[in-house]
């Protein structure tokens, strides 16, 4: 088992350098990263992606954007693909588009964004704006953000998918109170993806939503995996138990993420970060063994006791 420090060192980060193809960890990750299939197509995605809320809402200066440029570079090197954005996230779409185009990596990523407005024409205008900002002629996944005017937008998304402007369609929310409505939509077989909140301390989705998505062939993206940072605050200063090595868990972040990924209904979890070291750590959750049922129970008991 490698410690977080050792993993970061192997990634070439302790010296401040971002190595390329010779990077040992990147090569290892590309060969071994957990992939999960999109049920509606069979296309495989790496099981850990990148969220952009807050972290990518920055200005045009090099000082603001260089850390994010490094994140995207390292993500590509390690085999990561899924990047999730939204018009709600300020300048995130523009920053992602500018940086990925500048790095000549735009077409290497699985770009997901959202429509977040009311009314058909307003939705069309906003989605066209997202295409422009993200430097894309086609978006991989367009989602209806927080179910806002979802009945209206769903018809447009179907039309756009048929026309080849988007590849997949989905719906999202971030609160437990929306899970029942998301489950109803999932069971209607109208979407390819559903995105919602799920973490070790917020397990409402385990009641039925995750199983419903699996049973109905809908891919699952998970937001809020760290409970907006509350999980890290809870374990601050605490050491990982030795038994976590059985599941190739090298950090608290990996424990939180591997618990989520141990549910086979989950396609991809999208923790946000603007820090390369944290990105490497997060992507490490897609390596090695996942907790079995006994391990899942031990993790729940551990976090409940803290």
Automatic annotation (TrEMBL):
Residue ranges of domain NADP-dependent oxidoreductase in the record: 48-293
- SUPFAM superfamilies reported in the protein's UniProt record: NAD(P)-linked oxidoreductase
Gene3D superfamilies, per database record: NADP-dependent oxidoreductase domain (3.20.20.100)
Classification via Pfam families: Aldo_ket_red
**What is this protein called in UniProt?**
Aldo/keto reductase
To which species is this protein native? Dyadobacter psychrotolerans
């Amino acid at each position: 088992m490698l410690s977080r420090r050792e993993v970061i060192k192997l990634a070439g980060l302790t010296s401040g350098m971002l190595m390329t193809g010779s990077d040992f960890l990147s090569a290892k990750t590309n060969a071994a990263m957990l992939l999960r299939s999109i049920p509606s197509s069979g296309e495989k995605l790496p099981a850990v992606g990148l969220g952009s809320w807050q972290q990518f809402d920055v200005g045009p200066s090099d000082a603001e954007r260089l850390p994010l440029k490094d994140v995207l570079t390292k993500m590509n090197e390690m085999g990561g693909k899924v990047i999730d954005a939204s018009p709600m996230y300020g300048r995130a779409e523009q920053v992602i588009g500018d940086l990925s185009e500048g790095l000549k990596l735009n077409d290497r990523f699985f770009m997901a964004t959202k429509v977040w407005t009311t009314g058909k024409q307003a939705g069309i205008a906003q989605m066209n704006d997202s295409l422009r900002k993200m430097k894309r002629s086609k978006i991989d996944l367009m989602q209806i953000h927080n179910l806002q005017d979802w009945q209206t937008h769903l018809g447009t998304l179907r039309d756009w998918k048929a026309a080849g402007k988007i590849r997949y369609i989905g719906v999202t929310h971030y609160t437990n109170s929306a899970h029942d409505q998301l489950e109803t939509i999932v069971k209607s077989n109208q979407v390819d993806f559903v995105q919602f909140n799920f973490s070790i301390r917020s397990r409402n989705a385990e009641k039925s939503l995750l199983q419903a998505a699996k049973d109905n062939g809908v891919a699952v993206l998970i937001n809020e995996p760290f409970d907006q940072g509350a999980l890290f605050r809870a374990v601050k200063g605490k050491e990982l138990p030795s038994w976590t090595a059985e599941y190739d868990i090298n950090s608290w972040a990996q424990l939180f993420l591997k618990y989520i990924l141990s549910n086979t209904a989950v396609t991809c979890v999208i923790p946000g970060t603007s820090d390369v070291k944290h990105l490497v750590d997060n992507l490490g959750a897609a390596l090695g063994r996942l907790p079995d049922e006994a391990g899942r129970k031990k993790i729940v008991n551990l976090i409940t006791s803290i």
